[in-house]
Amino acid sequence: MKQAPDTRLRDQAVALAAVVQSALLVDLLSKEGTAPAAGMQSLADSLFRFEWERVEDVYGGLPAINRGLEALGDLLQAGNTTEHRAALRYTLAMLHLGRQLASDPARLGAIRNRLEHAALKQAHFSSRFDELAANLAAIYQDCVSTKRYRIQVNGSARHLQDPRVAERIRALLLCGLRAAVLWRHLGGRRHRLPLERRKLLAAVAALHELSSAP
């Protein structure tokens, strides 16, 4: 059954906000060496949710992607991209790579198999992001970094050369790519963004209000 336009854009906004939140946290890590633990954890948890009723359930609810919703709203405002310039670049790169992955079922299958294996470990050991990051980073390196197109992350050389920071960045890129593939699964396409910008902005504003409600 075809989704109603408002439902379709709402769901796409959720997935796109998760891509943006991943990009924001990658930018923070690359420049400052640290990022909010809760934001990283909610994105990592999404990798292990293979079934859901509502798209926001993938992230544990709208409040978990509040930061991404707010930034997505800023990016959709004409000319308001200076603050999030680097995050926008990473977002577009993840959407591009997500399109490539969506047309590569063998690679997606390999990623899912690795995630399912990691989920078994997660059930027996800690599920904290810092302890998952190394495993998620290895999946990214083995299954994504082997593609010709690679996401180039800029920032502080000191932080980028720190193995723990590098692992977190790769783990978050994997989270962002999962959201980008989900966005495409929900009908999201880059060429439609300018055409649907106002409606998408309205959907983002409504979601952000819900995510911020006490």
Q: Estimate the helix proportion, in percent.
A: 55-70%
**Secondary-structure element order, N to C:** HHHHHHHHH
CATH topology-level name: YcfC-like
Structural class: mainly alpha
- Based on CA atoms alone, the radius of gyration comes out at 16 Å
Protein architecture, described:
The protein has 214 residues and is mainly α. It has a single domain, classed as Orthogonal Bundle (YcfC-like), CATH 1.10.3890.10. It is built from 9 helices and no strands. The longest helix is centred in the first third of the chain and has 28 residues. The relative contact order is 0.21.
Blueprint (SSEs and pairs):
Blueprint: H1 5-32, H2 37-46, H3 66-76, H4 85-102, H5 105-124, H6 129-143, H7 157-160, H8 163-185, H9 197-212
Helix pairs in contact: 1-3, 1-4, 1-8, 1-9, 2-6, 2-8, 3-9, 4-8, 5-6, 6-8
Describe what is shown at a glance.
The protein is mainly α and 214 residues long. It contains 9 helices and no strands. The model is unreliable at 1-5 (pLDDT under 50).
Essential attributes:
single chain; 214 residues; YcfC-like; globular
